[in-house]
Design goal:
By secondary structure, chain A is α/β, with parallel strands linked by helices. Chain A has helices at residues 28-31, 53-71, 92-98, 114-127, 142-149, 203-222, 238-251, 263-266, 282-298, 316-320, and strands at 5-6, 10-12, 18-26, 41-42, 81-86, 105-107, 133-140, 165-166, 169-176, 183-188, 231-234, 260-262, 279-280, 304-312, 327-335. The first copy, chain A, is globular and about 50 Å long.
Chain lengths: 338, 338
């Protein structure tokens, strides 16, 4: 058996890659939220100077990538490959955002788990000895996501309290074979989990089971408890999904709550901002990771984080055809210690 | 610099993984074509017993995967991870096809380049020491693709001669850390290339530039000519794209034509079957690779193949917004020699 595979499905990285640069660019609502000081760039214009929301989403990608490159003092040609993807049909948010850069690309689709998936693959590619520098990028945009997945904004549809607010923003992280950290130490890809949820306005409930499965497997594979991490942070379970996740662990006799945080709950102030159950979208966990979380690790706030982004693998077509919502969660363990 | 990175963007695999099992399942039209004897399974029913074309596409995935597992004498739990993706919005063709299997999954989006991309990532994961067994899977379906990308079939839209026919089928390949071959020796991920083509019924022209860029880079990175391969096979350039590709090489003084083949031209008989410029879709290169090509290598027909699948990274939305068609090509060198 491969010696880097520990337990059932966790990969241990023997030469943990270091973050060389990371940046995020977000929209107005995110800039009005509690994490405003952690974002590298905030625009007040939802169109970001473009003519459509889809083009705006690509502009967020360009901005995040160029800022991450600048912070790492790298040119695009210094990066050997990029892993990227987003929520738009055919992942055009990131494709068109990366178009001019000329970096060899692997397109990825993991719904809202994409930031963890791209980061995982970038890390594996470096630890596997294939590249020295690899990038992970993702994005989402409230307006492009609403009209694609739900109804056009002009329709003014009502949203139930369990619905979440897609974050407008992009995050980019560059990993390098050497550097001062933080480091990617472990990767646990997720299995598809389907608990039968059919309500596309109740994603947190669908994804909580996937988060539970991946986090539980990761801890078992490593033979540790939640206290191995200062923070176990999910992508966008929101208020309801987060409670379900903690309930699942409580049923196992494990108190996850004190160490658990959710990017969807961190990014907005639900008392002051009208986002229902919290933030969501690939851009949510991406901009929280590439700002607040990695900055916090550098500042000594946390030494070990388990970044677990979750994705709901549905489409409007599968929902119309009466299908339930398969979900997945990918976990990436990030540490200040090599 | 990483020693497995040769030249600009080619990864050399030091412990080339072997194909352990591969299978394909296709529809009626493919079964009527010249490669009929190479397919593991042919159904006459475009619905494959399901109630929608999307569900049928997932049924093709299930069939190809179960046949590949059976040929490799493996259970799903023996496979450490799967890389999969398809053309449907949010890649639901493969997601729903893989749902019950419980294999840790990395979702991928590379349009019609997906079979090469999934195969490349599965190979890197094994050579990188993370897994012993990894699977690559993709699919497409003529009816689900037409209604999503162009017009519903009931509309009876006319198609220009440059249009291609999306293959109905799925291919699955399982790679293993050891085995009798054929082996994956090199991987060259592609850069996004955009030559300004805007006609969504002229994909071959858009993708030919990407194929040229990746194949040329691969040969330069390895320091070899086309004669290093018995066959340089593109995914689905079709008749027009294939001619453009050979023209590009001819302008460099390189005669690619005698060694070039295209899965989109191999799978149908354009004289007898009404497919315009040839076959296309992820399922095209997947079912030709997992049947005709790998069987041919086992039979001694070819010892070295450069499998280069190409993808057009557009969406109906980007086309409606007047965007051109970015393309990408991923190359995987497969050899009978370790």
């Amino acid at each position: 058996m491969s010696s880097k595979l520990i337990g059932k499905q966790t990969f241990a990285l023997w030469n943990p890659p270091s973050f060389a640069g990371h940046a995020c660019a977000v929209g107005k609502k995110e800039g009005d939220g509690p994490l405003r000081d952690s974002f590298d760039f905030i625009t007040q214009d939802p169109f970001f100077g473009e003519k459509s929301w889809e083009k705006a989403e690509s502009a967020f990608v360009k901005k995040a990538v160029s800022l991450a490159l600048a912070k790492a003092s790298l040119a695009p040609t210094d990066v050997n490959c990029v892993f990227c993807g987003d929520l738009l049909n055919q992942c055009t948010g990131t494709t068109f955002g990366m178009r001019e850069l000329g970096i060899p690309m692997f397109g990825v689709y993991g719904a809202c788990s994409t930031m963890a998936e791209t980061l995982a693959l970038a890390a594996l590619t470096i630890d596997g000895g294939f590249t020295d520098k690899a990038m992970a990028v993702t994005s989402s945009h409230f307006c492009s996501a609403e009209r694609q997945f739900r109804t056009p904004l002009e329709y003014g549809g009502q949203r139930p309290p369990s619905a979440q607010w897609t974050v407008t923003g992009s995050g980019a992280a560059i990993l390098s074979i050497d550097g001062p950290g933080p480091y990617v130490k472990f990767v646990t890809p997720g299995k598809i989990v389907d608990n039968g949820t059919t309500d596309a306005n109740h994603m947190g409930a669908a994804m909580a089971t996937a988060a539970y499965d991946t986090i539980k497997t990761h801890l078992e594979d490593r033979g540790v408890g939640p206290d191995a991490y200062d923070l176990i942070v999910t992508g966008d379970l929101g208020a309801i999904g987060s409670r379900i996740l903690c309930d699942f662990f409580a049923a196992d006799g494990v108190d996850l709550a004190p160490r658990h945080a959710d990017c969807g709950l961190l990014i907005f102030d639900r008392k002051k901002q009208d986002v229902h159950a919290g933030g969501s979208g690939c851009g949510c966990s991406a901009s929280v990771l590439c700002g607040y979380l990695l900055n916090g690790m550098r500042e000594g706030k946390w030494r070990n984080i388990l970044f677990t982004a979750t994705g709901a693998l549905l489409s409007p077509t599968t929902t119309q055809q009466g299908e339930s919502i398969p979900s997945i969660a990918c976990a990436v363990a990030i540490s200040c210690d090599k």
